[in-house]
């Protein structure tokens, strides 16, 4: 079954009970994330300056903000910090009390880091799906996210099949798989992925398939799969998890070759200093499509292009599998 209570945010509760719409949740959550840094800075400074009044006030304010976004761990840590400050009647603190409070603050900082990482993911990728339409179509956030989780896991394998059919020049199969993925994307209100799959099928249907056009279309589709896995991984998980480390939002329209794609950093690298490590439910290796070596072709230039395609995409497929393995449903 699917659970949308991530380690740091209960997304289902936020949307179903409080905000009603995905866009509203994203706006309020981003506002919450923007204010986390100043809150933590004032808590740290008040701890350093032995100012219990400010520390208690900031912990109380952050506790209320955390409750509004169902950030359960942050809420509990703020409550513990607020209570611990209240019980200290002598400032500056002795060594034992200082150590006790420093441990609580450090744990709160780690949780805030995780929430900020989630904020980066949502900020970068939240427009990749029509969440409100999906919620209405399937009846609830939980059901829709469950569909997305299974879709993302299966799509990585389907991308591997498309890759192999391109390498083998089985163009009818490429079109069939792309059309199938287009239909599934439409069913789940994933307009960007639907368009990417449609475009791949379109360029492959051409009487004279142009390799570079097909390559660019497939790269764009891979990027959509990567983005969706990253977002779904961040929103849907059953464990206390680290969120993917995200740099600036990726503009997939700027990537037109396998070399461009291979130069990208993967968003699936995890922050090792955050929450407990994820115990992957299924190994990516068990489900990853094995890629055959490109056969030699008569035309040297075409062979060189396709070998480059095969070699450079292999690492990108590993990156996509890495995120998908963390999404794997039980």
Automatic annotation (TrEMBL):
Residues 258-330 are annotated as: Disordered. Keywords: Cytokinin signaling pathway, Phosphoprotein. GO terms for biological process: cytokinin-activated signaling pathway; phosphorelay signal transduction system. Residues 21-122 form the HPt domain. It comes from the Eukaryota. SUPFAM superfamilies: Histidine-containing phosphotransfer domain, HPT domain (SSF47226). Residues 258-282, 304-313 have a biased composition (Polar residues). The keyword Kinase does not apply. The modification Phosphohistidine is found at residue 60. InterPro entries: HPT_dom_sf, Sig_transdc_His_kin_Hpt_dom. Pfam families: Hpt. The keyword NADP does not apply. This is HPt domain-containing protein. It comes from Pyramimonas obovata.
